[in-house]
Specification:
The chain is of the alpha+beta class. It has 14 helices and 14 strands. InterPro entries: SWIB_MDM2_dom_sf.
């Protein structure tokens, strides 16, 4: 091996490339706005699978994958840093220079050098970034740096994030052909198929279920929306005529019997259990080009993601609607039980009056049992005083009753007289 080949080999050993996966929400928010939602806010995971060439002598390598704010900014504490150790060495472990005057040996040396140079591309392990709710990071780009001097093919899988309260799902091809949507929530799928049935007049009898479903669409609880819609539909004994599009939703066992109609509840349950699939990742076949100085911006894709602000607003609005619905329901129930409450209040008042009268009788008979003469004299005096009060013959001096001290000194007597008048209906 001559000196030039050794230099070329050393250059290949030190060659590296960087692949950047970058994204940004297309909105009117400025890029330097600190409140702007970053790329990682919409992504659940990113997986890059490299397609290695068949070469068992090449050692595997793991390297860094670091998301950054942009191409010029350095990494911050909040940025992701996946540390994967690099293990790289020449297969033969020998970089010595060999010279020989013999032409055959020189030819063999050149072939060996070419073989060594072609084997400098290490095996590349898969890279995966997963969103961690306990340690969230915000970034717009994920950089993957590797050692290598040859083009590398890979598959990039991007899984979009969805709200846990209203998860996005993939629709089956049969369902997509009918409603025109490839993904969405289970509520959207059920509502869309119901709308298709209604517009094509496939509901044979009671169409009030559609109006009920429209009401549930605007006031549903997202955690139980599909089950509530199915319950609402089950309350209507509705039969659906199966056209050529709806028949494609049926399993093979039912297609053989060629049914003309089907219960609405059975059709909706079939869609919910068979045609709603977990959200599939977006897969991109990509080739890392090392024969070009830069390929930045050559591959650009538009990916539909859920609106985070809309989800937050919808959740808040939905909670308000649920709270208002519960409040109205409680008010309605209160109006229904108000007559019962009034009747019970009347019974309680009657019981209290009876207890008060029983207490008066108890005290009277207790006094008689302890001292009959004294108790009877007090009773006669009280009755005589009550008679005077009722007849108005108390004989108060007008000058005396005009003074405030009279009411302070005779408060107990005046209170008793007022009670006598009230109890006898004189006021």
């Amino acid at each position: 091996m001559d000196t030039n080949n050794e230099a070329d080999l050393m250059a290949l050993e030190n060659a590296t490339w960087t692949m950047r996966i970058e994204g940004r929400l297309l909105d009117n928010v400025q890029a330097n706005d600190p409140a702007r939602e970053k790329f990682s806010s919409f992504i659940e995971s990113i997986v890059v699978d490299f397609k290695n060439k068949e070469n068992d002598n090449v050692p595997s390598t793991k390297f860094n994958a670091a998301p950054e704010e942009n191409a010029t900014e350095g990494p911050s504490d909040k940025k992701l840093n996946l540390n994967l150790p690099l293990q790289f060495s020449l297969p033969n472990g020998d970089n010595s220079t060999t010279t020989n005057a013999d032409q055959n040996n020189a030819t063999m040396g050149e072939e060996t050098a070419k073989k060594d140079m072609s084997s400098t591309t290490p095996k590349l392990e898969s890279v995966k970034w997963q969103y961690d709710p306990n340690n969230p990071v915000d970034f717009d780009g994920l950089d993957i740096k590797r050692v290598g001097s040859e083009n590398v093919e890979c598959t990039i899988s991007i899984l979009r994030k969805s709200s846990p309260e209203e998860p996005f799902m993939s629709y089956s091809p049969q369902l997509t052909a009918i409603i025109g949507l490839k993904s969405g929530t289970s509520h959207d799928a059920i509502f869309s198929i119901y709308k298709y049935i209604h517009l094509n007049e496939l509901l044979t009898n009671d169409e009030s279920a559609f109006e009920n479903l429209m009401g549930n669409r605007n006031n549903h609880n997202s955690n139980t929306s599909t089950s509530k819609m199915l319950d609402a539909a089950s309350s209507q004994v509705s039969i659906v005529k199966l056209d050529t599009q709806l028949i494609t939703l049926l399993p093979s066992s039912l297609k053989e019997s060629s049914p003309d109609t089907m219960k609405l509840t059975d059709l909706l349950s079939l869609i919910n259990s068979t045609h709603l699939l977990p959200l599939q990742p977006i897969e991109i076949d990509y080739t890392v080009r090392v024969d070009k100085a830069s390929t930045y911006g050559e591959l650009v894709l538009d990916i539909e993601v859920p609106d985070v602000n809309a989800l937050k607003f919808n959740n808040t609005q939905r909670e308000s609607q649920i709270g208002a619905a519960e409040l109205n329901e409680n008010a309605r129930e209160l109006e229904q039980i108000k007559p019962k409450i009034a009747l019970q209040d009347k019974e309680i008042t009657s019981v209290l009056l009876n207890l008060h009268e029983s207490n008066k009788r108890y005290r009277f008979f207790k006094k008689i049992s302890e001292d009959p003469v004294k108790a009877l004299n007090e009773c006669i005096a009280s009755t005589s005083n009550a008679l005077k009060v009722l007849s108005g013959d108390e004989g108060y001096n007008e000058d005396m009753v005009r003074r405030a001290n009279f009411y302070k000194e005779n408060e107990a007597m005046l209170r008793e007289n007022i009670e006598v008048i009230l109890s006898n209906g004189r006021m």
